Structure formats: C-alpha cells, structure tokens
C-alpha cells in the first residue's frame, strides 16, 4: 500500500524530522488499530454501498486502514512546533489551531490517490460517537475506520510520555477506554478492545492484592485481563520465582503496576513535577472529548 503512494513515505519522513514522538505515536496507533480492525472484520465484516454485509477483501481493507492509521496525525506538520511541544496550558487560539490538524492532514494527502478508507482515519480520529469531537462534530454516522483510529489514538496518547503530560500506566489507559464505551466509542468496538488489548502487557511489574510482587509473564488470548504473573517478592522479601495464573486464582487481583520492582511493596508511584492536575485535565480533554 505504501509503495503505491510515494508521497506517503515522504510525508512520514517529514513527520519523523518534525517530531519523532508523533511518528512513534503513529506507529503505535497503527499496530493497535490493526489489531482492532482485524478482529472487527472477522466478527462483523463490512457493509458495502448497497447495504450488503460482506466478509471479503479482508486484507485489502486492513492495508487501507493501516495506511490511514499511520497518517492519522500528519496534519500536525502544519502546527508550529512551539505549540505542539508547549509544556504549559494552551491558549484558546492555540487549542483552536491544534483542533484543525485533522482537516489539515486531509488537505496534505488530498492531491494523491489515497483510498477513502485511509482518509477517514485522518479526518475523523478526533470525532466521537456522542458528537462531541472535532473538526465536524460527527456522531453515530462516523465510519468504523475513524472510530478505530480514535480509540487507538486515545489509548496510546494517554499511556505515552509527552512533554505536557506524564505517562499513565497501561491499565489506567485501558480503564479510561472502558469508561468511554457507549459515549465516545461504540460498545461493540470497546468490547473488541477489551478482548484484544491487554491492560497488563507482558514484562510489566505489578503488585498483587495479597502483597506479592512480580512481573506479568504471559497474557492469555482468551482472557487478557487475567495474566500469569511470575512472583519475585512477598511481604517478607525476595523469593524463588514462581508463577501464579490469575485466571485460576480469582481471589487474587492486580492492585497496581510498579515503576521499580525492587522498591517497597507499598510504595506509591511518584507524580512527575510537570504534570499538574489542571494541565492533565486540559490536555486529556483534547484527547478524550475532542
């Protein structure tokens, strides 16, 4: 798909030069969105212009979705870098400029032969089911590719470190997406996310409800929220590592993720000095509500 659009590769390189974080974010959104899109097509197929439900062209539609996911934030090329990377509160004019990046992104690719299935990701990734998004305030008629792009964008944006916002643990970002079911995103899409994306990925250090600490060693495809944890510490100190399968031990839950596995079992995660609650609310409003 990329080979057929030389300007797309050039635009991605421009994005890398302009802001490497935005490119990394775009790659993350592409991976997450393709996982969701693949499962959505397997379960529901797609509806053609005559209203017929179809299950063909699976890979072709995924390729076009992936291209749109890669390019969803390309409009940020037209936002001044000092605004995009501003560590403080944005002014009303600056926020209005930021909110134009979906339309600006569409303008950047409009001259090429990019498929409409990709373009809807660029224009619609900040639109929401309840009509509270931007740039057009679209609602229930929003294309499913745009909805997928929006959900993947929220999840990665919240769980990634930015100059204006501290990274939130993956499980908090996961729970945030859960809370948006039926308002910002369709219930069925959030259900697919819940069953596809793990709140506690492999390699994450966690604290269990009984005081034990460990590392997520295996995520089970059929129940992603109940992983196997390799226990490395208990209340009394270090232990010989052993596995606990949380799917079979329903009396044990994960209380929190840990920044440092060697730290005290009850230590709280430090809050970065630059991430004030007020600034978090402003920037998260830009991510979640539009």
Distance between the termini: 29 Å
Helical stretch tally: 11
The neighbouring-strand order within the major sheet is: 6-5-4-3-7
Give the rounded overall mean pLDDT.
84
SSE class: alpha+beta
Summarize the helix and strand pattern as letters: HHEEHHHHHHHHEEEEEH
Helix content: 40-55%
Biggest sheet: strands, sense, closure? Answer: 5 strands, antiparallel
CA-based shape:
globular
In words, what does this structure look like?
This protein is α+β, with helices and mostly antiparallel strands. Helices cover 44% and strands 12% of the residues. The chain has eleven helices and seven strands. A hairpin with a 2-residue loop joins strand 5 (228-234) and strand 6 (237-245). Helix 1 crosses helix 2 (20-44), helix 2 crosses helix 10 and helix 3 runs parallel beside helix 7. The protein is globular and about 65 Å long. The model is unreliable at 262-286 (pLDDT under 50).
Features:
single chain, 290 residues, 5-stranded antiparallel sheet, two-stranded antiparallel sheet, 11 helices
Helix and strand layout, with pairings?
Layout: H1 6-18, H2 20-44, E1 46-47, E2 53-54, H3 58-70, H4 81-84, H5 92-98, H6 101-109, H7 116-124, H8 144-158, H9 170-179, H10 187-196, E3 205-208, E4 213-218, E5 228-234, E6 237-245, E7 254-257, H11 277-288
Helix pairs in contact: 1-2, 2-3, 2-8, 2-10, 3-7, 6-7, 7-8, 8-9
